[in-house]
Write a structure and sequence with these properties.
Low-confidence stretches: none
Order of helices and strands: EHEEEHEHHEHEEHEHEHEHEH
CATH superfamily of the largest domain: NAD(P)-binding Rossmann-like Domain
CATH topology of the largest domain: Rossmann fold
CATH architecture of the largest domain: 3-Layer(aba) Sandwich
Shape: elongated
Number of domains: 2
Bound molecules: glyoxylic acid
């Protein structure tokens, strides 16, 4: 019984040794040294190469090293009928909570303005509104989104959420579906995108979408780069309809050196670090899900391949 691991190369050995300790009965092999492909029953992957998983005829399940599964489902030759398990868990939720609260607070308290003032040795004591006067909107109310929304509410923000289907979360005004999107956007000063990437959410943040946000709103995208139409964002910043964008995810990663986002004065670029999984805590989640799967116990993180998350 063997498992194949595909990750960004720099991290593969670190992951391999952790997973091997957690799963002593399963031989953990690297993608570049698969041995006999027929031994492989489990694949633990981040952005597997197109068509690559097909060579493993005895594959029983595919684990995404991350909460998103779009990078697995994007493979047009993905073996049919093989369950796909995502990885969530407390470390991913905690890291995303930190990222979202950090940047919402940064925008709320005008930290970028203060930094610029400091560069000019300019003492500018602005009084910012209270959090309860700042309307934050979180798109995507799965584990990460619901947790981020609740954390923002506990900091005192006026928080609403939006998702494809209806949700009920304490202290969060929940909107859902296309019909309620405009009302959700109209009441949002800081928009946080934590949606899964699906055919319905691809390019959702476009010109028309931005026009529904109040003038001066800011966006934080920690979902996927494909949620955003980049030129439409640049235009909305140029016309000052939007005040700023904080972007952790991009259509092309790493973000190409010549990309206009890098040097844009109203864009903060972070290199897809919003919620990175690590082999110690993430490895434990993966091992637990795999052992449950092997023992035929229910695994909550098996995704619906049809729905896309
Ligand atoms: C990160 O992007 C993830 O999907 O967990």
């Amino acid at each position: 019984m063997a498992l194949i691991l595909h990750l960004r190369t720099a991290r593969e050995l670190w992951w391999q040794s952790h997973l091997q300790k957690l799963l002593p009965e399963i031989e953990c092999r690297l993608w570049r040294e698969p041995g006999n492909p027929d031994d492989i029953e489990y694949a633990v992957v981040w952005r597997p190469p197109e068509g690559g998983l097909q060579q493993f005829r005895n594959l029983k399940c595919i684990v995404s090293v991350g909460a998103g599964v779009d990078h697995v489902l994007a493979d047009s030759q993905l073996p049919e009928g093989v369950p796909v398990i995502r990885t969530t868990g407390t470390d991913l939720t905690q890291r995303m909570r930190e990222y979202v609260c950090l940047h919402v607070l940064r925008l709320h308290r005008g930290l970028d303005r203060q930094w610029q003032a400091q560069c000019a040795a300019d003492w500018q004591p602005d009084i910012t509104p209270l959090a309860s006067q700042r309307r934050v909107g979180v798109m995507g109310l799965g584990k990460l989104g619901a947790d981020a929304a609740a954390s923002l509410a506990s900091l005192g923000f006026d928080v609403a959420g939006w998702a494809r289907s209806s949700h009920h979360i304490d202290r969060i005004d929940c909107f859902h579906g296309d019909a309620q999107l405009a009302d959700f956007l109209a009441r949002t000063d800081i928009l946080v995108c934590l949606l899964p990437l699906t055919a319905q959410t691809d390019s959702l943040m476009d010109r028309e979408f931005f026009s529904l946000l109040p003038k001066g709103a800011s966006i934080i995208n920690a979902g996927r780069g494909e949620h955003l139409v980049e030129q439409d964002l640049l235009d909305a910043l140029e016309t000052e309809h939007l005040a700023s964008a904080t972007l952790d995810v991009f259509r092309t990663e790493p973000l190409p050196k010549e990309h206009p986002f890098w040097a844009h004065p109203k864009v903060l670029v972070t290199p897809h670090v919003g919620s990175m999984i690590d082999p110690e805590t993430g490895g434990r989640e993966i091992a637990r899900n795999l052992l449950d799967f092997i023992a035929n116990r229910p695994v909550a993180d098996v995704i619906d391949r049809q729905r896309g998350y």
